[in-house]
Specification:
single chain, 177 residues, alpha/beta, Alpha/beta knot, 7-stranded parallel beta sheet, 21% strand
């Protein structure tokens, strides 16, 4: 077994990436403190052709050296928008017909592996602050809450890890490639 070279992987060029069909998913980052988490989410969004990222509140925006360290150029390929509040992002997405999905530990949450989206639905996935999680006001606006089951002594995962798990689960069930 040998690793593939960059040429053998046949990655899309930036211009080709901009033209291809994207997964109808918007990732909403609700007051994320860590610029490394933000950059990691950009890379994951690029890997799975996410339509857009909404950066809300205190969430830093590109261009940013710390975001770039983990994004490695994905801030150029993935479309993004900034909103002063997460509520503004959610209201816009609702008006555009998106199903709002909070990722949180909450009453009535659905195990992420059991989530099934309706065919042709557009979804917005909200990931919350590293300490406080998804804001309670945003939880009230969510249509669905997904939870990642955990079996250790800790009660949470890093935001970028959570984003990777949830985006992968949604991508597997909605493959556009």
């Amino acid at each position: 077994m040998k690793k593939l070279t960059t040429e053998e992987i046949e990655r899309l060029s930036l211009s080709d990436f901009k033209k291809v069909v994207k997964l109808p998913v918007v990732v909403v980052l609700d007051n994320i403190r860590s610029q490394h988490n933000i950059g990691s989410v950009f890379r994951t969004a690029d890997a799975f052709r996410i339509d857009c990222i909404h950066l809300c509140g205190i969430t830093a925006t590109p261009p940013n050296r710390e975001i770039h360290k983990t994004a490695l150029g994905a801030t150029e390929s993935v479309d993004w928008k900034y909103f002063p509040t997460t509520n503004e992002s959610i209201q816009l997405l609702k008006s555009q017909g998106y199903v709002i999905i909070a990722v949180e530990q909450a009453e009535g949450s659905i195990n992420v592996k059991d989530y099934e989206s309706e065919e042709n639905s557009k979804v917005a996935i909200v990931f919350g602050n590293e300490v406080h999680g998804v804001d309670n006001g945003i939880m009230e606006l969510a249509d669905i809450c997904l939870e990642i089951p955990q079996y250790g002594t800790k009660h949470s995962l890093n935001v970028s890890v959570s984003a990777g798990i949830v985006i992968w689960e949604i991508f597997k069930k909605s493959i556009i490639i």
